[in-house]
Amino acid sequence: MGIFTNHFPLGLGTTRFPISGRNDTEGFDRSVHLVRQALDGGVNYIDVGYNYSAGMALPVLREALRQTDRPISITAKVMYGQDQTASDARKRFDLYLRELKLDRMFSFTCWCIWSWDDFEKITEKGGIYEGALRLKEEGAVDHICGSLHCPPEDMLRIIESGVFEGITVSYSLLNAARMRPVLDLAEQRGVSVAVMNPLGGGLIAQNREYFSFACGEADQGNTVHAALRFAKSHPAVDIVLGGVSCEEELADSVGVFSAPDPEPPAKRLNRVMGRMSELKGFCTGCKYCEGCPQGIPTSAIMQARNALLFEPIADYNRQGPPELLYDLQIFRKLFFDHDWLPGSGESPCIRCGRCEKSCTQKLPIMESILDTYRRAGLSGYTMESHTNRLKELLHGKGFRRVGLYPNGGFASKIMELYQEKWGCPEFEWVLFNSDQKMQGQTADGLFVHGPEEIPELRPDMVLICTYKFDQEIEDSLERFRKDGIVIKKLHRSGEVPWIF
Ligand code: SF4
Ligand code: SF4
Fold first, then answer.
1. By residue range, what is the domain housing residue 81?
2. What is this structure's pTM?
3. Is 407's C-beta closer than 6 angstroms to any atom of ligand 2?
4. In a domain, 3, yes or no
């Protein structure tokens, strides 16, 4: 029996409440109503991050909890990266208690574990996990869990470590073959599992016909119901998290889990896994193609290219063109699942044919590899493109001072790459951020300034080093151009981000 056993099979995700911000009173009331509807339907597990739903998830939950006395298990998620130390973990956990007006919580989730390296940092002496252990000793939290976003191989090691009583992982028809060993091990080790993204981030609901193979007779042709039941069908899975944005969607999901699966779960699991291998053009992630003599991560690339089977989805504040949207999906997956960035757009494949011979789906791997490198070259997702872009923007330009706006992952990457390629820059780096909480802090050993200090500091160039909101930032900096300050975006139009 695990920590999630005896919970209602549908858990409430809180990322998609219909609320735009603090001043959206109508959205607030509607979101509170949604939570009440979920709780009245039997939902008793809530997954919440302090920044979810435009930062309003905690106030919404506080109000909904005030209106009910049902016992609810809530997990407080503490993000590695935003928080680093045991004391950061405590401060963040206290914020949850304060915001929700609670004096204890069901679980503490070490959130955003993207790699084994992250896991080691979280569990090192003085790290987030130590903070969680102290809270558990004090009785402020019952259980310690992890939210794993790392490759399945790292998940297996993390489960083996035995530090988490429960884990939250992405699991759906899209990654079922790769995730099956993870769920099998969790079951063996008695680690409870809550599943996120049961509809593959919306891809399954948007491509119901393609995924209709998942429907058994009892699903009556409803692909979404079949996909939700599939996510629950592995014996390790106790909770399927559903993010809800409207009453109808919530009522539908509650309905699916209010009755036992009409098909025995073990039969469903085996039926769907079997049908998956019959899908045309779909990479199941079985990995039989691995072992490329050129070190090409064939199965990771082929899985990422599953995105090409469906309509492209607008993302990262980009609405098109379709090829860019596909590239965003493909390289995002390769970035997160495999930390993959090719040296250049030239494919190193020597066409030995070894991968294709082993492919259970008979996929055209060699052509796909060639096309993936070509795409990477065209969309600026190669080490060569990154280096050339920095050279074009910064190297040897006679600058005295270069502003990076905002500080963060992109800025760190730029400074690191510049140093690696050309050594100490001949100019001074200056960091800017419009977030007042960042101003006055240090990042990468540099002081962070507000944008109103730009005229006084007079950088020769301000480089906009973010992706999603680069246009908004460029518009906000337009006024400094008249002072002769060069304002440039790091990413050209049609390119994917340097980091995701
Ligand atoms: S054909 Fe190319 S990708 Fe496949 S194993 Fe050989 S070198 Fe690697
Ligand atoms: S063998 Fe084929 S189906 Fe299996 S991971 Fe490789 S490309 Fe995908």
1. 10-276
2. 0.73
3. no
4. no
